[in-house]
Write a structure and sequence with these properties.
Blueprint (H helix, E strand, L loop, with lengths): L4 E5 L6 H13 L4 E6 L5 E2 L5 E2 L3 E2 L10 E4 L11 H12 L4 E4 L3 H6 L15 H5 L14 E4 L2 E4 L4 H12 L4 H13 L4
Parallel strand pairs: 1-2, 1-6, 2-5, 6-7, 7-9
Antiparallel strand pairs: 3-4, 8-9
Helix pairs in contact: 1-5, 5-6
Length: about 190
């Protein structure tokens, strides 16, 4: 059975805009449902002041039910490893399901060891090493807006549209023209 549910894991003060376009287009244009997840089901407040009550708590997450797990940035990711998050992203990887992290959420993938042997990006070359001493992926770091390597998608904090495009390429590779149109539209920021 192929699942068409995208899960987004939200932390307090998450960056509203970083996954917004990806989630909107996954739902609107690519036919996915979207489920919000928190560490608990307590309400989460975004950087922009949006209050979200998660659909599920992380302990209830079933990786086999997810088409993708998306982690937007938040300063909360700088506070250290959340073991349950590491377990969830590693479970996704073990199932051959994609995970995607942008901005400081790339720290969660690094804590889980997923960036030690995959090409990736983040908020600058030294960002991950500054917070995670066990990180061994410095040679795999790429100074790019977004990178996808073996079902792990990463992006820097100023590249939400490139992040979304990599997610679309991973989940809907047959929709190349639609993805190119999306990239062209948001790269220019203009309508003719």
């Amino acid at each position: 059975m192929i699942t068409k549910t995208a899960y987004v894991l939200l932390r307090n003060d998450y960056a509203d805009w970083e996954a917004a376009s990806a989630l909107a287009e996954l739902r609107r244009s690519f036919g996915f449902s979207v489920q919000t997840m928190g560490l608990t089901t307590e309400p989460i407040l975004s950087m922009g002041g949006l209050r979200v009550i998660p659909d599920i708590a992380l302990p209830d997450f079933a990786p086999e039910s997810a088409a993708i797990l998306i982690l937007p940035g938040s300063d909360a990711w700088r506070e250290g490893e959340v073991v349950e998050v590491s377990e969830a992203v590693n479970a996704m990887a073990a199932l051959g399901q994609p995970v995607a992290a942008i901005c400081a959420a790339t720290l969660a993938l690094a804590h889980a060891g997923l960036l030690d042997d995959r090409e990736h990006t983040s908020n600058g070359r030294g960002f991950i090493a500054k917070y995670i001493h066990k990180y061994r992926g410095q040679a795999m770091y790429r100074a790019s807006q977004a990178v996808s390597d073996r079902l792990v998608i990463t992006a820097n904090g100023v590249a939400p549209f490139a992040f979304a495009a990599e997610i679309f390429r991973t989940l809907a590779p047959g929709r190349k023209l639609d993805i190119e149109t999306y990239e062209s539209l948001y790269a220019k920021g203009l309508l003719d």
